[in-house]
Design a protein that fits this description.
- The complex is a heterodimer of chains A (110) and B (119).
- With 110 residues, chain A is mainly beta.
- Chain A is built from no helices and eleven strands.
- In chain A, a hairpin with a 2-residue loop joins strand 6 and strand 7.
- In chain B, 0% of the residues lie in helices and 47% in strands.
- With 119 residues, chain B is an all-beta fold.
- Classes of the chains: A mainly beta (110), B mainly beta (119).
- At the A-B interface, strand 5, strand 9 and strand 10 of A face strand 5 of B.
C-alpha cells in the first residue's frame, strides 16, 4: 500500500463547477497535510495546509481533513480554466521531509 | 526576490557521464531537500541536508548518487555514470528550520527544477 494515494485522473469539470480532489494515507501518525499545485513543466507551489480535523477555507479553496478515516480532500469552488493543473497531496509521516502522492490531474473545461 | 535557485534548468548527458545539479536555497533557509519526479508521477524524496550535514538520505539510491551542502556555496546533487532511467526532473526545496511543519511560516519552497535527459 502506498503511503499517499491519489486518483491520477484526469478529473474533468466544467468552468464554474466545484472540483473535489481526494487523498488517502496509510500512516495514522501523520500530523500535517498539504496541497500543492503543479502546472505542467513547472515547480510545485503550496496552496493549502491543514493540521486539524475539519475544514479550512482560503478563498475558493477548502481543505478537509478526517484523521479517523485517513483522508484529506481539496475543494475548488467556481473552478476556472487556470485551475487546470496537477494537484499533489503531501503529508508529514514523521520523517523530516514531506511525502507526496502521485497527483491528480484536473482539467477545467471552458 | 531570491527564491530557490536551481541550475541548470536543462541538462543533457550521455550514458556513463556525470551529472551535477546545483541548488541555492532561499535567503535565510538552511535546510535543503532534493526530490525526483518521473514523468506523470509524484515527487519522490531523495535526501535532506543542512549545512555540512546529511540528515536523511533514505530516498537516495545507494550507488552513483551523492549529495552535499557545503558551508559555502550551493547544495550539489551528483549522479555518476548516468543511465537512461535517471532521466527525470530533479527539484530542490528549502525551508528555514528543522520543524518544517510548525504553523504557517515554514512550508517547503521549491525551485524550478533541473530536467535531466540521458541519451
Amino acid at each position: 500500500q502506498k503511503e499517499v494515494e491519489q486518483n491520477s485522473g484526469p478529473l474533468s469539470v466544467p468552468e464554474g463547477a466545484i472540483a473535489s480532489l481526494n487523498c488517502t494515507y496509510s500512516d495514522r501518525g501523520s500530523q500535517s497535510f498539504f496541497w500543492y499545485r503543479q502546472y505542467s513543466g513547472k515547480s510545485p507551489e503550496l496552496i493549502m495546509f491543514i493540521y486539524s480535523n475539519g475544514d479550512k477555507e482560503d478563498g475558493r479553496f477548502t481543505a478537509q481533513l478526517n484523521k479517523a478515516s485517513q483522508y484529506v480532500s481539496l475543494l475548488i469552488r467556481d473552478s476556472q480554466p487556470s485551475d487546470s493543473a496537477t494537484y499533489l497531496c503531501a503529508l508529514n509521516t514523521g520523517r523530516r521531509a514531506l511525502t507526496f502522492g502521485s497527483g491528480t490531474r484536473l482539467q477545467v473545461q471552458p | 526576490n531570491a527564491g530557490v535557485m536551481q541550475n541548470p534548468r536543462h541538462l543533457v548527458r550521455r550514458r556513463g557521464q556525470e551529472a551535477r545539479l546545483r541548488c541555492s536555497p532561499m535567503k535565510g533557509h538552511s535546510h535543503v531537500y532534493w526530490y525526483r519526479q518521473l514523468p506523470e508521477e509524484g515527487l519522490k524524496f531523495m535526501v535532506y541536508l543542512q549545512k555540512e550535514n546529511i540528515i536523511d538520505e533514505s530516498g537516495m539510491p545507494k550507488e552513483r548518487f551523492s549529495a552535499e551542502f557545503p558551508k559555502e556555496g550551493p547544495s550539489i546533487l551528483r549522479i555518476q555514470q548516468v543511465v537512461r532511467g535517471d532521466s527525470a526532473a530533479y527539484f530542490c526545496a528549502s525551508s528555514p528550520g528543522s520543524n518544517v511543519f510548525s504553523g504557517a511560516d515554514s512550508p517547503l519552497h521549491f525551485g524550478n527544477g533541473t530536467r535531466l535527459t540521458v541519451t
